[in-house]
Amino acid sequence: MPHLAKNLSAKINSRIRNLPNSEIRSFSQKISQIPGIIKLTIGEPDLNTPEHIKRAAINDIDSNDSHYAPEAGKEKYLNSVSKYLKKSLGVSYDPKSEICAIVGVSEGLNIAAMALLNPGEKIIVPTPVWEVYFGIIKMAGGIPVQVDTSADNFLLTAKKLTETLENEGKGAKAVIITDPSNPTGRVYSEQNLQKLADVITKYDIFAVSDEIYAELIYGDRKHYSLTQIIPERTVLLSGLSKSVAMTGWRIGYIAGPAELMKSMIKIHSFLISSVTDNVQIAASEALDHGDQDYIDAREKYQKRLHLLEDGLKKNGYTMATPEGAFYIFAKIPTKFGCDDVAFAKDLAEKAKVGVTPGSFFGAGGHGYVRFSYASSEEKLKEAIKRITDYTNNN
């Protein structure tokens, strides 16, 4: 077993070495050791990838499509993304110059951060938010400026964005919007986005719009996008991981103005060369023929949302109404205090229900915990029963 040469330890990139590991994943792995625990931690759909999507990949493998794909992506996939965005949002992106296939939104966030930020530049991040954003921005040499949205029902307002750009975020290069939100499930209205777009334009900054949960919005609400208002300054990130249970396939897309995409595609080619052939073909099938898959998934998740939301409210949890994604971000009942990490550990050990501490998601998350309802109704019902027993007995 090799050991690093003693004098080389101090020569490792300090920016990377000093980054903390993901608290969300570390906590989830730790409580996974508890026998019989029901984990409502990681945002991993329990559904299977639809058969027609799997078959498309198998057929592509059987046809020996196993060579390097073009750097930006296969023509079939890029065309499918372009058509889907036109159909779903009414926006037009040229598949030849304004779209790139990516290995999930995580890669897309890395690409966006590297393309937009010079070392020491700021990017505004409304919180609570998926913690990976912070590490990605810091790896690119940028500075994440957290904006606590808890006082505004967990949505970034134009007023708050303006205040931030005039103060701690002065000189920021961009703002990230996650819509629907992880961890809160909140959704931006068309009016919300228009007001934000006005501020973004006034201060002449970029917008990075993470829309990975766009197909999972419930009730009568509709998904809107900054690409419909300010496409000339917006980087769109999305994919198939959540909507059709393709997390393990690692496939998504990034879209933006052609001039910016030249830099992004260059970064992408240096990072991974190209995305796997058969995965792109499967994703193309999902985009072209997956409308019913989205509908079926939404129906399941909405039923689970109502089930878990009702159970939590009966036990004294409060929350801003979740409208999309598959998370509930709930405030811990007063009787348990506000230490969300201690509460989540105790709930895991005594009730055998795993949830994620809200403070892991940045400013505004303290005193909250995130529940993922991407689990079966059977597991959710049992989790509610255990939570009820825990609440009554502690």
UniProtKB/TrEMBL annotation:
The answer to keyword Transmembrane applying to this record is no
Q: Which cofactor does it need?
A: pyridoxal 5'-phosphate
For the keyword Nucleus, the answer is no
Q: Transmembrane stretches, by residue range? A: none
The GO molecular function terms of this record are:
pyridoxal phosphate binding; transaminase activity
- According to its UniProt record, the EC number is 2.6.1.-
Matching entries from Pfam families are given as: Aminotran_1_2
* CDD domains hit by this protein: AAT_like
Task: List UniProt keywords, sorted A-Z.
Answer: Aminotransferase, Pyridoxal phosphate, Transferase
Q: Name one GO biological process term.
A: amino acid metabolic process
Question: In what residue span(s) does the Aminotransferase class I/classII large domain sit?
Answer: 37-387
Uppermost EC category = transferase
The record's PANTHER family line, in alphabetical order, gives: AMINOTRANSFERASE, ASPARTATE AMINOTRANSFERASE
Q: Which family does it belong to?
A: Belongs to the class-I pyridoxal-phosphate-dependent aminotransferase family.
> What protein name applies here?
Aminotransferase
